[in-house]
Amino acid sequence: MHDILIRDAERSDFDDVMQVEKEAFGYEKEANLVSQLLEDESAEPIISLLAFKGDEAVGHILFTRATIDGNNGSPLIYLLAPLAIKPEYQRQGIGGMLINEGLRKLKANGAEMVFVLGHESYYPRYGFKQDAGSMGFAAPYPIPEEHAGAWMVYPLSSKAVNRIKGRVVCADALNKPEHWRE
Ligand SMILES: CC(C)(COP(=O)(O)OP(=O)(O)OC[C@H]1O[C@@H](n2cnc3c(N)ncnc32)[C@H](O)[C@@H]1OP(=O)(O)O)[C@@H](O)C(=O)NCCC(=O)NCCS
């Protein structure tokens, strides 16, 4: 896709971000979550990216800071949530472009792992590994056994995955049970 531009979302892009989130999901829960996360100090440093087609914002992705429970020397790890593409622009590879650009930036910033709770048939296309729980990384809230595969990790460095294990603690705004039910 040569006509899609991806760049960091600025404060002045807030209305565009909200519009993408509301249209993609068809309700306001994710838009409200994003709005809270953008003000959440425990989520920093955040990576928030917008995809544009011409002047129109058509996709948004957010990565927020996370830690490993009880580990002061926790590696720099992130949660991907949410990813949103406006309905008429879905299935054109824009979600994948946002994921790849986010992972590239995170790696450049020294991040070591990225976690996501999401579609089991979608994120593995972009290198996420299913069932991070079985690799020693429990989700912030327990994931039912039948959805264990939906809790995934993208290792940006093989060292971190092997060096540290433990429960992932997410930013405060995400750290509520309603965000961890599929
Ligand atoms: C899920 C979503 C982010 C994917 O973005 P996208 O730009 O459409 O995805 P891509 O073009 O990179 O990849 C398309 C592939 O993803 C798959 N896909 C798209 N939506 C999917 C879904 N809801 N479940 C499973 N797979 C899905 C399709 O199989 C498609 O492949 P195909 O066209 O070969 O069949 C987008 O559809 C969306 O915003 N949906 C509504 C919000 C949402 O559910 N977000 C995810 C939160 S974890």
Plain-language structure description:
The structure is a single chain. With 182 residues, this protein is an alpha+beta fold. It has a single domain (4-180), classed as Gcn5-related N-acetyltransferase (GNAT) (Aminopeptidase, 3-Layer(aba) Sandwich), CATH 3.40.630. The protein contains four helices and seven strands; from the N terminus they run βααβββαββαβ. The chain has helices at 14-25, 29-37, 94-108, 158-163, and strands at residues 4-8, 47-53, 56-68, 77-85, 113-117, 151-155, 168-169. Strands 1, 2, 3, 4, 5, 6 and 7 form a seven-stranded mixed sheet that branches. It is globular and about 45 Å long. The mean pLDDT is 94. The structure holds coenzyme A (COA). Residues 24-25, 82-85, 90-96, 118-119, 121-122 line the site of coenzyme A.
The ordered string of helix (H) and strand (E) elements is EHHEEEHEEHE
Count of domain modules: 1
The main pleated sheet reads as: 7 strands, mixed
**Rg, nearest Å:** 15 Å
Strand content: 25-35%
Assign a percent range to the helix content. 10-25%
Distance between the termini: 31 Å
Shape: globular
SS content category: alpha+beta
By CATH, the architecture is named 3-Layer(aba) Sandwich
